[in-house]
Amino acid sequence: MGLGKTIQSISFLSVLYHKYQLYGTFLVVVPLSTMASWQHEFETWAPDLNVVTYVGDVTSRDLIRQFEIYVQSTKRLKMNVVLTTYEILLKDKSFLGSFEWAVLAVDEAHRLKNDESLLYRSLFEFTTNHRLLVTGTPLQNSLKELWALLHFIMPEKFDVGQNLKTEHHDSDHKTIASLHRKLQPFLLRRVKRTWKIIA
């Protein structure tokens, strides 16, 4: 915790917006407990992005759908980012699943380690160009959980979980080194001991 995952993720979306003219739409799914932090960091680090916070009761979400998603009387999107929670996503998966998302970012992505969960299956069906998983919680020595996350971001490359599990069933140094090499292009890992906090 405290290694800047939220800011790095928002900066990534901001670079896509400013440098590559990819204006969205980006879907960011977060736990309710971190929603205020994400809102604050978007305001601080990416004030140019039009972020719609998609939460609230049924009436509130109806109003958001009517007035915040599209330019009035058109089907042109007016937002760059939709920021929502897991719970709201599951309630409104039909609406949120109707978009083609440029980026789907999932905070606390270790919650997707079970590829049979409703959240995993719902998000997996969304049409996305890119997927970003953010977590501060390491996996607990389970290749099945790791495979579920890899399959979520690149199903065509990590289609058969059995290959990963059978290839890397030993825990010797050579096997671990091989697994690290395969994961390197897909994993950005920060640990506190490698960071010096400047006060």
From TrEMBL:
Cellular localization per UniProt: Nucleus
Major localization class: nucleus
This protein's name: Helicase ATP-binding domain-containing protein
All copies of domain Helicase ATP-binding, residue ranges: 1-156
SMART domains, alphabetized: DEXDc
Gene3D superfamilies for the chain: Tandem AAA-ATPase domain
PROSITE patterns for the chain: HELICASE_ATP_BIND_1 (PS51192)
InterPro entries recorded: Helicase_ATP-bd (IPR014001), P-loop_NTPase (IPR027417), SNF2-like_sf (IPR038718), SNF2_N (IPR000330)
One GO term (biological process): nucleosome organization
Keywords: Nucleus
Molecular function per GO: ATP binding; ATP hydrolysis activity; ATP-dependent chromatin remodeler activity; chromatin binding; DNA binding; histone binding
PANTHER family xrefs: CHROMODOMAIN-HELICASE-DNA-BINDING PROTEIN 1 (PTHR45623:SF14), CHROMODOMAIN-HELICASE-DNA-BINDING PROTEIN 3-RELATED-RELATED (PTHR45623)
Coiled-coil annotated residue ranges, if any: none
GO annotation, cellular component aspect: chromatin; nucleus
SUPFAM superfamilies assigned to the protein according to its UniProt record, in alphabetical order: P-loop containing nucleoside triphosphate hydrolases
